[in-house]
Amino acid sequence: MASKKHVACQSCDINCVVEAVVKDDGKIQTKSISEPHPTTPPNSICMKSVNADTIRTHKDRVLYPLKNVGSKRGEQRWERISWDQALDEIAEKLKKIIAKYGPESLGVSQTEINQQSECGTLRRFMNLLGSPNWTAAMYMCIGNTAGVHRVTHGSYSFASFADSNCLLFIGKNLSNHNWVSQFNDLKAALKRGCKLIVLDPRRTKVAEMADIWLPLRYGTDAALFLGMINVIINEQLYDKEFVENWCVGFEELKERVQEYPLDKVAEITGCDAEEIRKAAVMFATEGPASIPWAVSTDMQKNSTSAIRAQCILRAITGSLKQGAELLGLPHSEFVSVSQIQMHEALPEEKKKIQLGTERYPLLTYTGMSAFEEPSARVYGEENRYFHNMAAFMANPTDMFTAMASEKPYPVKAFFTFASNALMGFANQENALAGLMNQELVVCYDQFINPTAQLADYILPGDHWLERPVVTPNWEGIPFANTSQQVVEPAGEAKDEYYVVRELAIRMGLEEHFPWKDRAELMNYRISPTGKDWEEFQKQFTYPSNIPDYFAPGGVGVATPSGKVELYSSVLEGLGYDPLPYYKEPEQTPISDPELAKEYPLTLFAGLREDPGFNSCYMQEGPLRNVEPDPVALLHPKTAQSLGLPSGEWIWVETTHGRLKLLLKHDGAQPEGTIRIPHGRWCPEQEGGPETGFSGAMLHNDAMVLSDDDWNLDPEQGLPNLRGGILAKAYKC
Ligand code: SF4
């Protein structure tokens, strides 16, 4: 039997480190790590990781480059070809498209977290070619949090459970199968007496563990935080020294939160005013307190304000200087991803036309340019273009619109790297129209998912058990874990860097990709440690040295003022409200009671279920068997009022579209709301347009989610999925 390896699980995005062993029958057994690990507590493994090898070895996995030889896009006539043929043809077509439409006509959607091995080289390739049009699901999931954190305190803030005496959770339904290592961290924190405040409309298991549970109305998080800030300021519970020395805009903030007295906040959120007050007092006085990242506020109409208000809470209560919240930075021991990306190579005129710049500039090059000087000041000139998880992103709505309508300019080549872009955003029909209007679609992935069904070429991607990496790939986490390779890639699967470099060579960019393979690239990235990979991988974790941002006379944080900007100069400069606010979304029973008569339910979308991760692991097997059908959840009383029994197929319809889902009753859901799943498709069905791309057009939540302006957060331009869309449900 082979020796055990330590591997950072990449079946979801928290990267629990697990143990992997190749058994005598060739199968890989994954189990929780048996030795003490600095960042992964014991017993941290979930069903996705236990079953990782069933996905790796699944009969449907793509093992060779495939070319669609059908006459129409979406026709499923796949022919096996060699890597050289695939890469030669892709490069030739890309050259012609760039010659005709310009380099910005290349759009890319990437999921960095499931890749890890390209270390920023895909952006480097794009920057050297001259295309700014990179986007990712991270635009509405943690990447945008990092962008808004940056606006307020210079970089992404990582909550340290071990250093927190009070945790504020926002809709985080952790479990043994959902971010299990953080669930174990939570249990350990509670065991030593840490307080827990939970904001969640649902009565979840985590809500039941809380000292204070605030069952707020979906989408009202910003109002609730403003009410908490009101209490903390008016009751003089804030850290006066920190506010005086390290914050700007306190007086303006103080004035703003007077607009959010507790009785008004209670009315908006549906929570009890005294409970909100207790939560505010607990957060301010039982600290150090922290707010671990939660996707919930990434997907709301008031997302920017809700995230900003969290930043303000952690600042004015002193958490940022007490170690409960750690401001991220390029890893001090490595060559940074930002450096490898070479954003300086992209001409300024191309940065200015990044899609989204005109309507929603905040997360694009234009909005993020405000952080170039501050990043250079705090992290060194070499990190002027600090990536901070995900920055410089094209707006996905504007990307798909440019692909479909060729306005403001054509995007005619689209590469999707492990991102299943068709299903990953809102307004799936627009994404489909965009993909259909391409002259070249390339998909790097493990399965022929709905996006791959629209590709000209599918390139077989490796699996995390087949690649040695450092996790996380994104920048802003104050540590890095080593992850060992367990087996060679199956079939002809290749790592992402192979694809990037081979294309770069064919596009005449070889000199900028001197690392001949991933091993050389990895050795370059870790070269400041003085170790090569063989030596480097023996150590579990490499902590990053975090500067003392707030030392007397210190360098401060990477904002334009060098201080925490309660009043944001960057938002003000872009013409937005520099202070957080709450505005009722356009489609709620309060703002549109007439519409609510026809659409009486409040939609809750974008939810990942435990056996899956976005649209992954839908293939037949043990993970799919946990919940084979796409399920909608209604409170039994709500279902009864609509005459909808559990176990029946229903239509869920919004003003944008409709979905077919299996109804289940669930007493944990708030009455009057409906929860729909994200990422559901049926790989067992034939692909192509006749089946709605294996059910994606029938079951995925993006079919009912609008990305019209009324449903977008005004600053970031990302779609609201929670609390601002009305829906109705009826029998099929
Ligand atoms: S929660 Fe599960 S899938 Fe996610 S990293 Fe941990 S073990 Fe892997």
UniProtKB/TrEMBL annotation:
Source superkingdom: Bacteria
Residues covered by the Molybdopterin dinucleotide-binding domain: 613-682
MF terms (GO), sorted A to Z: acetylene hydratase activity; metal ion binding; molybdopterin cofactor binding; oxidoreductase activity
Lyase recorded as keyword: no
Record key words, sorted: Metal-binding
Ranges where the Molybdopterin oxidoreductase domain occurs: 61-504
InterPro entries: Acetylene_hydratase, Asp_de-COase-like_dom_sf, MopB_CT_Acetylene-hydratase, MoPterin_dinucl-bd_dom, Mopterin_OxRdtase, Prok_Mopterin_Oxidored
Name of one Pfam family that matches: Molybdopterin
Family of the protein in this entry: Belongs to the prokaryotic molybdopterin-containing oxidoreductase family.
Protein name according to UniProt: Acetylene hydratase
